[in-house]
Specification:
Layout (H helix, E strand, L loop, with lengths): L1 H4 L5 H11 L7 H30 L5 H12 L15 H13 L12 H15 L6 E2 L2 E2 L5
Antiparallel strand pairs: 1-2
Helix pairs in contact: 3-4, 3-5, 4-5
Length: about 150
């Protein structure tokens, strides 16, 4: 990921990355990895923000780090630490955990659940359907229906 931030992927790494993620020819690996990273951070940030609000209402002490920790732990299915007993949490908090655990992980990750790229494609499908488009578009790009 560090290499992709500064566009420093050599030809061999670009080819390997395209093969590892089964990317179409018109998708640049640097753009793909950057998009996955941004989407992952965005989902985790939204989860942390929602948990922060819910923790505030529940009277949890030291709100910020537990919210961030639990959002990331639930998202990447890393497991939970005993920062706060899970069984005593409100149903709203458990629903946020549930949503983050369903999403799972990013491509080539070992986390279970729906991959972030599948979720992004689903969001693009819903948006395109609501806008009456016959093609799925996401970030000004057409999502191919088959390979």
């Amino acid at each position: 990921m560090v290499l992709t931030i500064h566009h420093r992927l050599g030809h061999a790494r670009r080819r390997t990355t395209k093969a590892a993620f089964n990317l179409p020819d018109d998708v640049a690996p640097v753009v793909f990895i950057r998009s996955v990273l941004i989407f992952t951070l965005l989902v985790e940030a939204v989860g942390a923000a929602v948990l922060f609000v819910i923790f505030t209402q529940a009277g949890v002490a030291d709100l910020l780090w537990p919210a961030i920790f639990h959002a990331i732990s639930a998202f990447c299915t890393a497991g939970f630490n005993n920062t706060h007993p899970i069984g005593s949490m409100a149903p709203a908090i458990l629903m946020v955990f549930f949503f983050l655990m369903i999403i799972g992980a990013s491509p080539a990750g070992t986390g279970g659940g729906l991959k972030t790229t599948s979720l992004a494609a689903l969001i693009g499908l819903v948006r395109s359907t609501l806008k009456g488009r016959d093609q799925i578009r996401f970030f000004k790009r057409r999502v191919p229906l088959d390979k």
